[in-house]
Write a structure and sequence with these properties.
The chain is of the alpha+beta class and about 210 residues long. Helix content is about 35%, strand content about 25%. The two termini are about 35 Å apart.
Length: about 210
């Protein structure tokens, strides 16, 4: 059961289609497993539809209308297939093409392994990274130079804010300093979007900050 959710503003931005692709992916993954947030987004979508009905209508020429109909007809079969596939396929698995535990992880520090997937989102300026914390392992103490949005994909981790289980969602910033610990008997895997690199705060690990990008 998810206990940590996106805030109302984030859900409104998602409903309006204003989030970047990586952020929208995090929300989508959470919504697929959280009926509470999905219900809220459904309500926002319905509200948006009502507002659109009352928005002044723009004139559309006959030729443009015919062009739109032709495009819909030509894409209908493809859209039907894509809809069936999207129902069966986790969007992250479709993006990665493999199981999370079979990915080419790179050992970073101690119990932490990472896989940078930023290149899967061309044109994005933020870093998109998968992070794996070995079962029972500890991540180095750190804070954040910017904003970090994270969703738990597998396992769970704990810090001073509580326990974050699979599909929980959390946003951290410069005011947050923590030292996550993987809890349970399986590795904890998260998907994070960072606007800036983390800043290590440990007595010795802080010496590595100049090398973190």
């Amino acid at each position: 059961m998810t206990r940590h959710h996106p805030d109302s503003l984030t859900l409104m931005e998602y409903s309006a289609g204003n989030l970047t692709e990586p952020h929208a992916l995090c929300i989508r993954l959470h919504l697929d497993q959280c009926p509470h947030c999905q219900s809220r987004v459904d309500t926002l979508d319905s509200l948006g539809a009502v507002m659109m009905e009352h928005h002044p209508r723009a004139d559309v020429s006959d030729s443009m209308f015919d062009s739109i109909l032709a495009r819909i007809d030509s894409d209908s079969d493809e859209n039907e297939v894509m809809t069936r596939v999207s129902v069966r396929t986790n969007p992250l698995q479709k993006l990665l093409g493999d199981d999370l535990n079979n990915l080419p992880w790179k050992r970073q520090l101690g119990d932490v392994s990472v896989l940078d997937i930023s290149e899967r989102f061309p044109g994005q300026h933020e870093q998109v990274v998968l992070q794996k914390l070995a079962a029972g392992g500890k991540a180095p103490a750190h804070t954040h130079r910017g904003e970090e949005t994270t969703i738990v994909l597998q396992g769970a981790f704990a810090d001073q804010k509580g326990v974050f289980n699979q599909w929980d969602f959390v946003v951290l910033n410069e005011q947050d300093e923590h030292k996550p610990v993987a809890v349970g008997c399986e590795d904890c895997i998260t998907l994070s979007i960072l606007s800036a690199p983390v800043k290590l705060t440990g007595t010795f690990t802080r010496l590595l900050n100049p090398f973190i990008r």
